Automatic annotation (TrEMBL), chain A:
Gene symbol of the encoding locus: potA
Subunit architecture: The complex is composed of two ATP-binding proteins (PotA), two transmembrane proteins (PotB and PotC) and a solute-binding protein (PotD).
EC number: 7.6.2.11
Family matches, as SUPFAM superfamilies: MOP-like, P-loop containing nucleoside triphosphate hydrolases
CDD domains the record matches: ABC_PotA_N
Listed GO CC annotations: ATP-binding cassette (ABC) transporter complex
Protein name: Spermidine/putrescine import ATP-binding protein PotA
UniProtKB/TrEMBL annotation, chain B:
Short name of one Pfam family: BPD_transp_1
Upper taxonomic lineage: Bacteria, Thermotogati, Deinococcota, Deinococci, Thermales
Location (main, coarse): membrane
Protein's cellular compartments: Cell membrane
Ranges annotated as spanning the membrane: 7-28, 62-84, 96-117, 129-150, 179-200, 233-255
Gene3D superfamilies linked: MetI-like (1.10.3720.10)
Domain ABC transmembrane type-1: 58-251
Membrane protein topology class: Multi-pass membrane protein
Name of the protein in question: Spermidine/putrescine ABC transporter permease
Organism: Meiothermus hypogaeus NBRC 106114
From TrEMBL, chain C:
Family to which the UniProt record says this protein belongs: Belongs to the binding-protein-dependent transport system permease family. CysTW subfamily.
Any Gene Ontology CC annotation: plasma membrane
Name of this chain's protein: Spermidine/putrescine ABC transporter permease
Domain of life: Bacteria
Domain ABC transmembrane type-1: 72-274
Subcellular localization(s) per the UniProt record: Cell membrane
Annotated keywords: Cell membrane, Membrane, Transmembrane, Transmembrane helix, Transport
Coiled-coil ranges from the UniProt annotation: none
Membrane topology per record: Multi-pass membrane protein
Species in which this protein is naturally found: Meiothermus hypogaeus NBRC 106114
GO biological process, one term: transmembrane transport
InterPro entries recorded: MetI-like, MetI-like_sf
Membrane-spanning segments: 21-42, 76-98, 105-128, 154-176, 213-233, 253-275
Length: 380, 259, 287
């Protein structure tokens, strides 16, 4: 089967071959498992993100793919070959470091040429490729500059060029945008995506910024405490979180504890709710219901919909483009977001403090998370 | 690779400590000559302490070190403040002059001061070579070290702190006393400690500027060594090494506590 | 003190702060140097005192006599090789300390000899090298005849290396501490093998520290007279010994001053070259 993914509404065709395969990777630092039994496959040409809070083991995992560390258990297979013990200088992989790690004693040109020089490429060929790389990152004419005189964004791009000029099979990027300010970050996101698409190189992108991962990736692996919580296409990660951690870490989620009464009916503190056809629970089972704030609908008059209950508006947060309502129903708080638009129609009305409203949870938008409440706080 | 590095390191440490260990061992050795260990004794220490001249040399050394450190710390700190806070003609010349005592070999420093004292004495019959001239000489190189250390500290200081003090109505003198000085105090203290240990350690400059009756410990050690190895010197050296280690350990613990 | 009220006030403050120190440096550093310069142009009186006529004769004598040129050459030679040995010993040591978990303790182990009295450190080598000393004790224990190790050039080398090793390790350690090790990984990542990666990514970062350490060791090693005096007694004459001799038993202050000027000129030349490559910041770091 040809895997087809969507990213920003564009259909993307990925290669058939595996670029990287990790098999049961574990890495310990003392007693602590920084990476715990991680297995995953990354396809040729994929933009793959490792997403998770800081300290969850993303860098450690990336370093084992690059070859700076060797796993205590498991295998790293790159381009079909077992490279678990292969030193970094023999791997067809290059890295963009978090702090860029540009050589301060070399010019931009010398930095970019470094990898080619190590390969003993002829001089004129090196010069040609360096030019190509400089144009790729939109910095032609900067050859002789010293890297310490350049801005963060420029340094980031040089680090990218220094890696890409070697035509690696896989490019590893460790939070390459995190040191930059918001505006620049947003610009470079788009640049990076286009570049990846154009060159067709597999990207493994590490980030703790869920928005970044959502915008850029074909697939995302969400990590927590050294383990992969969920791995899947970007939309699936957002729309169908499998664990409470993922639901909370990616975007915002309301989590409601529930107990199954029937395969598609649960009881919660807020009342009895019906679920989507796809869900099938065993009666008595304890689950969590997750719903995104923007998927909650509010009404002044009681709507004729399933899963309706009363709530009071406890707080309103105005963010410009959105109104965020903090709802209080039976002692439970729920977050609800509505777009700040001018039309006033049922489900898009504006409310005021302390107003009593009707809340409707659409069955298809209620995601059932099995496996209880453990790890529901991504920052714990 | 790591192994090689560590073997190398421990060999170098052995090299660094072998001579010190030998001296310490010999200071407890009964035999007067040679390095064969013939038995344990405190004799040399007893002899050392009954040697009244040594007490005098120690006093001389300490007088020189204390007086010169006090003067050079005051002058050096002021000079550093002036150099950082004011712009004036000859400033660059002064800065280069500051490096001279640091970089010029101490023989040159010693003989140039000897020449100075000689020329002045020929002219006005004063000063005789004595503890006084040693102190003048020591201050002359200490002042450079103190200034450079304090200046480094001053340059790290946020100027807006002094501006804030003035904004709150402090006069320049009060600003200096209440804000600048407390903030550069760590630099002043390190400068003073450096100056003190330089004075204690100095042999060469002292050698050229000392006169009769102004023997310091380093001068005494030098002349005894020239006369031949003596176990009393072993005992004296051991004590001095012990004090060095003690001071450094206390200093390290002190700094670590503060950090 | 940044913007005093009036120019007079500012001048007063400047005189209070800079005045005493500047005066001291002028009186006890600048003037003695000038006196030394004048003295080097004078002649030796019958009692060794400085007398006219003035002239360049001391310098002419210095540079025309192979004996003195040899002394200069020997000083530079011994200074240079001692520095090379110190670098060979100290460079890996700085790395070992920087990557150790017990940095502070190891650093203290370097600092203790550094602060131990200079004469004691030199003296210890007499104890080791003398006829009845430790080394000969070892040699004779193997049934070999005792060696004449003192005075000798070997002893001068060993003691010079020993004395100035900490002066080199400390600034180099400071440079190694600041190294950004991710650059080593970056070099590996770009295909450099370990030795190449070290040479291209790490070594250049230690070059300023290396220069600094070199100067801190080389200048005093060239200028010393105590080590050669005690361990090379009579056999090894360096320029420092020459100067001391002229002011001591030889009683030729004029010629001694000229030799001092030569030594000082060499040092200043070295510093000038250093400042050219490292900038003035480099000079500040020397302290
Ligand atoms: N060299 C190391 N020694 C000891 N612990 C480490 C080391 N590197 C990482 N760790 C630990 O492993 C865990 C994961 O770290 P890391 O992979 O850097 O996380 P992330 O990149 O996701 O922020 C952290 O708890 C960190 O403290
Ligand atoms: Mg990280």
């Amino acid at each position: 089967m040809e895997p087809t993914l969507f990213r920003g509404r564009r259909e993307r065709k990925l290669g058939q071959n595996l670029a990287v395969r990790l098999e049961g990777i574990t890495k310990r630092f003392g007693d602590q498992k920084a990476v715990d039994n991680v297995s995953l496959d990354i396809r040729d040409g994929e933009f793959f993100s490792l997403l998770g809070p800081s300290g969850c083991g993303k860098t450690t995992l990336l370093r084992m793919i690059a070859g700076f560390d060797t796993p205590d258990e498991g295998r790293v297979i790159i381009g079909g070959k077992d490279m678990t013990e292969v030193p970094p200088y023999l791997r067809p992989v290059n890295t963009v470091f978090q702090n860029y790690a540009l050589f301060p004693h070399m010019t931009v040109e010398q930095n970019i040429a470094f990898g080619l020089r190590m390969k003993k490429m002829p001089r004129d060929e090196i010069a040609r490729r360096v030019q190509w790389a400089l144009e790729l990152i939109n910095l032609p004419g900067y050859e002789k500059r010293r890297t310490d005189q350049m801005s963060g964004g420029q340094r980031q791009r040089i680090a990218l060029a220094r890696a890409l000029v070697n035509e690696p099979e896989v490019l590893l990027l460790d939070e390459p945008l995190s040191a930059l300010d918001l505006k620049l970050r947003q610009e470079l996101r788009v640049d990076l995506m286009n570049l990846q698409e154009r060159l067709g190189i597999t990207f493994i992108f590490v980030t703790h910024d869920q928005e970044e991962a959502l915008v850029m990736s074909d697939r995302i692996a969400v990590m927590n405490k050294g383990r992969i919580e969920q791995l899947g296409p970007t939309e699936e990660i957002y729309e169908l979180p499998k664990t409470a951690f993922v639901a909370k870490f990616i975007g915002d989620s309301n989590l409601i504890p529930a107990q199954a009464l029937e395969p598609r009916k649960v009881r919660t503190a807020l009342g009895e709710f019906v679920l989507d056809e796809e869900d099938a629970l065993t009666p008595g089972q304890e689950v969590l219901l997750s719903i995104r704030p923007e998927k909650i609908r509010l009404f002044r008059d009681k709507p004729n919909l399933p899963n309706v209950f009363r709530a009071r508006i406890d707080d309103i947060i105005y963010t410009g483009s959105e109104n965020q309502y903090v709802l209080l129903a039976d002692g439970q708080r729920l977050m609800c977001e509505t777009l700040n638009q001018d039309i006033q129609e049922p489900g898009h009305e504006e409310f005021t403090y302390d107003e009593e409203v009707w809340v409707a949870l659409t069955p298809e938008k209620l995601v059932v998370i099995e496996g209880g409440v453990e790890g529901s706080n991504p920052y714990a | 690779m790591k192994r090689l590095l560590s073997i190398h390191a421990w060999l170098v440490f052995a090299f660094l400590y072998l001579p010190i260990a030998v001296i310490v061992a010999l200071s407890f050795n009964q035999s007067r000559f040679g390095v064969r260990f013939t038995g344990f004794t405190f004799d040399w220490y007893v002899r050392l302490f009954s040697n009244e001249r040594i007490l005098e040399y120690l006093t001389n050394t300490l007088i020189v070190a204390v007086v010169s450190t006090v003067v050079s710390t005051v002058l050096g700190t002021l000079l550093a403040v002036g150099l950082v806070r004011h712009r004036f003609r000859w400033q660059n010349a002064l800065r280069y002059l500051l490096y001279v005592p640091v970089v010029v070999p101490d023989v040159v420093m010693g003989i140039s001061l000897l020449l100075l004292f000689d020329v002045v004495r020929d002219a006005i019959g004063w000063p005789r070579l004595s503890l006084f001239t040693i102190i003048l000489a020591h201050i002359s190189f200490q002042i450079a070290y103190v200034t450079l250390v304090v200046r480094a500290r001053l340059m790290l200081l946020d100027p807006s702190l002094e501006e804030a003090a003035k904004d709150l109505g402090a006069t320049p003198w009060l600003t200096f006393r209440e804000v600048t000085l407390p903030l550069i105090m760590p630099g002043v203290v390190s400068g003073a400690l450096l100056a003190f240990s330089l004075s204690l350690d100095d042999f060469v400059v002292t050698f050229f500027t000392a006169g009769p009756g102004s023997t310091t410990l380093p001068l005494y050690i030098y002349s005894s060594v020239k006369l031949g190895v003596s176990p009393e010197i072993h005992a004296l050296s051991t004590l001095m090494v012990g004090i060095t280690i003690l001071v450094l350990l206390l200093g390290t613990l002190f700094w670590r506590k503060r950090a | 003190m940044r913007e005093a009220a009036t120019p007079w006030e500012r001048l007063r403050q400047m005189l209070i702060t800079v005045g005493p120190g500047a005066l001291w440096l002028g009186l006890f550093v600048l003037i003695p140097t000038l006196i030394m310069l004048v003295a080097s142009l004078m002649s030796r009186g019958s009692l060794g005192q400085l007398v006219p006529p003035f002239g360049l004769h001391n310098y002419l004598r210095f540079f025309s006599d192979p004996l003195f040129l040899e002394i200069i050459g020997r000083s530079l030679w011994i200074g240079l090789w001692s520095t090379v040995f110190i670098m060979l010993l100290g460079y890996p040591l700085a790395f070992y300390i920087a990557q150790s978990r017990h940095k502070e303790v190891l650093l203290l182990l370097v600092v203790i000899p550094f602060f131990t009295n200079f004469l004691i450190r030199v003296y210890a080598w007499i104890v080791i090298f003398q006829k009845e000393g430790l080394l000969n004790g070892l040699i004779t224990a193997f049934g070999l005849p005792p060696a004449e190790l003192l005075p000798s050039t070997l002893a001068v080398y060993v003691a010079t290396v020993y004395t100035y090793l900490p002066f080199f390790v400390l600034p180099l350690y400071a440079a190694v501490e600041r190294i950004d090790w991710s650059q080593l990984e970056a070099a590996y990542d770009l295909g450099a093998r370990p030795i190449r990666a070290f040479w291209e990514a790490i070594f250049p970062q230690t070059v300023p520290g290396l220069f600094e350490g070199f100067l801190l060791v080389f200048i005093p090693a060239v200028g010393t007279f105590v080590i050669a005096d005690l361990l090379g007694g009579g056999k090894v004459t360096l320029i420092g010994n020459l100067i001391q001799l002229q002011f001591g038993s030889a009683q030729n202050w004029a010629f001694g001053s000229a030799a001092s000027m030569v030594l000082m000129a060499m040092v200043l030349l070295g510093l000038w070259l250093y400042a050219r490559t490292q900038g003035e910041k480099g000079l500040d770091k020397l302290v």
